[in-house]
Structures are given as C-alpha cells and as structure tokens.
Amino acid sequence: MGLTIAQKIIKEHLVSGEMTAGSEIALRIDQTLTQDATGTMAYLEFETMGVPQVRTELSVAYIDHNTLQSGFENADDHRFIQSMAKKYGLRFSRPGNGICHQVHLERFGKPGKTLIGSDSHTPTGGGIGMLAMGAGGLDVAVAMGGGAYYITMPKMYKVNLTGKLRDFVTAKDVSLEILRILSVKGGVGAVIEWGGEGIKTLSVPERATITNMGTELGATTSIFPSDEITKAFLEAEGRGDDYIELKSDDDAVYDKIIDIDLSTLEPMIACPHSPDNVVKVSSLKGTKVDQVCIGSCTNSSLLDMLKVAALLKGKTIKPEVSLSISPGSRQVLSMLADCGALSDILASGARLLECACGPCIGMGFSPNSGGVSLRTFNRNFEGRSGTADGQVYLVSPETAVAAALTGEITDPMLLGKMPEVTMPDAFKIDDSAVILPASPEEAKDLPILRGPNIKPFPDSKPLGDDLSTQLTLKVGDNITTDHIMPAGAKILPYRSNIPHLSQYCFGVCDETFPKRAKAAGESIIVGGSNYGQGSSREHAALVPLYLGVRAVIAKSFARIHAANLINAGIVPLTFKDPSDYDLLTQGDDLEIKDIYAGLDSGTLILTDKTSGKEIALVCDFTERQKAILKAGGLLKYVGQGNL
Ligand code: MIC
Ligand code: SF4
User: Fold this and answer.
1) Most buried among 128, 253, 297, 446, using CB within 10 Å?
2) Is the CB of residue 296 below 6 angstroms from any atom belonging to ligand 2?
3) Strands (DSSP E) along 305-421, which ranges?
4) What is the pTM for the complete model shown?
C-alpha cells in the first residue's frame, strides 16, 4: 500500500508506535518555534529540564504577539526570551521582524522536516511540504530538550483541486469553502493533504493561507506536496538547497476525499462568531462596515499585500471605514516600500501597523462598539477583537479592499478588472533581525534576564483515586481557548503570571467563574463537543489548574487542548453517551471513585450526588498519558527522568 505525504514524513521520524490511525505515535522533531505569548512559559518550563542546549536541528524564538509595550511586562518577557535564546542555542527573531509563521515559511521551513510550534497556526509550514503542528508550550519545551512529540496517528484526508481560481476568488475563499463543508470540527484527528491538478495554479503563499486555516478545521495539520512551485519559492528566498521533492504515492489510501473545482468558487465570508459560519460575500451585500483589517499569519504575504496595493492604487477608502494593514514580515514590508506599493496603500487612507499579529489577537485596533470589522484573519471568536460586542467577519484581502472602498460588504468581483500582480523571482534577504545564539562555551556564563512579572507556575497534583467535588461550570459546544483564557492587549502581558491571569478565566462565558472555582477549592468543568478548539495556549489548562479544576468532562475535545490538560495534570474525560451531558447541572456535587481501576478498564462512573444519577465516562488514555496524570503532569513526569 502506498503512502501519503504525511505518512512518509511520519515514517521517517517515527520514534515509537504503530502508524495505524488512532494509535499513539512518538515523532522526532527537527525544528521548533515559539512566539512570545506562549514562549515565556515554554522557556520557563524548558529551564526546569536542565538541558544545556536545545537538541533540535533548529529552534527559533519569535516575538510577534505581545508587541504593544504599554508597561514593562511585555518588554521584560521579550528580554527574558532573548536571553534564553542566546544561552540555550536558539535563533531570536526580534520584535518587528514579523509574524512567526510568515517568517518561518520565508527563512527557515524545509520540506520533509517536522516542526512543532507553540502556536496553533504552525501548520502554515505545510505550504512548503513540512509536517508542521501546533502544540502546547510544554510539548515544545520537551521537543527542544530532544524529547519526542506524542500525537495520535491521524487519519488521512485528501482535498483534490481541479480548475483555476477566477480573478477576485482566492486561496482564502478555498479555506472558507472547506470550513463551510467540514465545519470547525471536521478535521479533528486528520491530516489534510491538498492535491490534484488545481494545486499547480497555487503559489506557496496561497498554499500557506490554506494550510494555515486548516487549523480552524481542527486538523492535526495540512500539507501540500513539495514540487516545482515550492522549489521556485525556496530559490527566490535564496534557499534552493533546502528543496526536496515530496509527493504521495499513486496508490496512497485516504479516509476521506473531497473534490473542489476552483473555477466554480465565489468570494466567501465567515460571519460572527465562528470561522465555519460561512456564506457567499454576495449574500451580505450592502452590510455597513466600520473597520477593515488586512494582515495576520493567514494573509500577510508579499503577494497578498501587492494585490491590496494594486487594488487601492489611486483610490481613497470611505471616510467611515478605518483600514489597517499589517505586513507579515520585515521582508514583505521592505519590499513593499522599495517597489512603491506601500505608498499606494498609504495614499488610500490606510493605517500601517507593525509586522506583528496586532488586531488578530486584540493587540490594539479593536473595533468600535458593536462595530462590523472585516478581517483577512483566521478567527472571529466572540470578544477576541477586544470589543465585546464587535462583529468580526473573515474575508480575503480582495473582499477586504472592496469593503474599505465602498463602506459596505461588497463582492470584490464588482471592482472591475483585477490588476496583474506577480511574485518576484528573488525576495529581499536580510536576516539581520534574527539574532544568533552564543557558542555553547560562551553560553555557560550567560545570565537569564527575568522581570518581576514572572511568577511561579501552578503546582499540579498527582491524580488521586477518588474525586469528590462540585461542577462549577457547564458550557456548550465549540468552546474555544479564547473563552477559557481570553487574550487581548490588557490580559496578554500576564502570560507568565498565572495568578493574575486567573481573574479572567472564562470571562466571556461567566465572569463569576474564577471566584466560584476558588471558593469550591477543587472542581470539575463540563463542556459540549470540540471543547478547547482554537489556540494552542497551555494557559487554558494552567489557569484552570490554578483555580483547582481537576477534571473536564466533555462530549469531545480539540487535539491540542486535550494534550495540554493532560500535561497540566487535569483529566479530560468524555461521556460514553453524549446525551448524558443533559443530565448534569452547574452546581451539582459530583463524585468519581476508583479512578485508578477506571484508567485501566477505560471506563469511570460519575455519580451526581445532587440528582442521584450515574453516568458512564470514557477514560481512554495511553500508558504514557496515565503515567503523566499519575505523576501530576508532564513537567513532573519529565522530572522523574522521562524526557
Ligand atoms: C491565536 O491565534 O489564538 C494565538 C494567539 O496565536 C494562539 C497562541 C496564544 O494564545 O498565544 C494560537 O493560535 O495558538
Ligand atoms: Fe498571530 Fe493571529 Fe496568527 Fe495567532 S492567528 S499567530 S494571533 S496572526
């Protein structure tokens, strides 16, 4: 039987386990990346492992999220990460150098390699044929220390593309279309391979938009073959030597195949508050728009920006609309400036933001109250923009420009003729904002620079045999990690201060939760399906841990969050019969007995002492996961000599 692209890379990196979908496998990781919002915690965790230098082929620490330095906290964290990078052998990408995924694609990613990153959009690297996955900070720390990365062997899905996109229909519309088809949980447990004749019409930045947004499907990762187009991109980045050809075997077997004819697609838009709430742009024609944001790791490549500039050239945006542009990297910004396209953008009335995540994570540029914001980003979860009642829609850069020019949601196909935009044969290479580490010899005496905002992380408890506690919070389906641990400019600076962060836990759902959880001492949360989708932030596990949460019972979990819960020593349990979810009420007293025996049998019985009902729960863990839970989390397990 032939192999898919992902299976080939997995086979080459397999440390242990069977390559059968559903079994646990351990992978050797070639490259890691972190960003600052998850990085501080990841490096604190790495430090406790006592490893003198990172053991990967390449590890990069990016600063791109917490770049609004409205106090000392972010600047202190940047300095801490920089000192860690210098001492432990990582490259340090300075603030201003760009968004981790864009810069990694440009300068470091290599086809056929494995990459994990403490950011859920790490699969962007799949655009050049990497097996690139998002992970919790602690898993990345372990990989930096030379430890394997454990995942469930994914199923293989294939999307076959035929035809060619029409003008004004873009890779972003392909992403939105697949979200419409599969939904935000349609990719859970799968790798999505993109193939078919149609991929020959897609450049690397377009492919990277698609793999980036595969994250919104809940997929383990997404991947394109590495072909002549990949080669041309790497050569243009001066990295032709990094190219290898990579394709699936003709007789590779897929669990699901989806066909999309690119030539039939139309501009699409995801409505508030979920990336899969997708309709045709034309169906919302005339909706008034207050704000437009172009950028983020989904749509901030030079190609995207050149198209935006060409469409804005010689025109002025509506006075009622505020338009922001954040190029994905310094390379993009500087090439835009050199060719004059930046002037065209600015002359139209756009505001230039720095090369960073910015508005995507609520780091400034929040919309007005109740404002309609059209964004080329990948997430539109409630409250994420920083404005609680903001109405965020996700669109392509072309649709974004159409809205900025007309002041309302407008099908970009009505803009007339699409100007010809081509990618350059050579990108401008300047790696001066990537600081190299010290030599291992020099590194020994280097200090680590810590600010006062770094507080000790919460202590986890080994799993006991009985748990008798209260159900402090019951939430519904598709709860995101932005619900569990919101981000935004006010809260993000405290990513290394769990006690402070804890005040905001579940703030979007129930502001009283932190107080009630603390008062309960220990507690259980109940959720619906796809609990913990979205960001990879391990804070969505560490903060509940700090607040005494010992178990989460849900209909199903998102992959990275389930791993983060186990890593934090919190037990993720699922209902044997999902309809039992309805039997539980917030405030009930719950009891789970004989947990150790249940871990072995795979079933636990939950007694709702308030209603007297008994509910069967699935606790299907691997031996390693059981050992981690019994040890009280991954850090403790690693401390027992299990790196
Ligand atoms: C996001 O897009 O939600 C983030 C911010 O990039 C997160 C990481 C974080 O919470 O720091 C992600 O996607 O993993
Ligand atoms: Fe940054 Fe937004 Fe991409 Fe997350 S999704 S890495 S916040 S640009």
Assistant:
1) 128
2) yes
3) 322-325, 351-352, 372-375, 391-394
4) 0.98
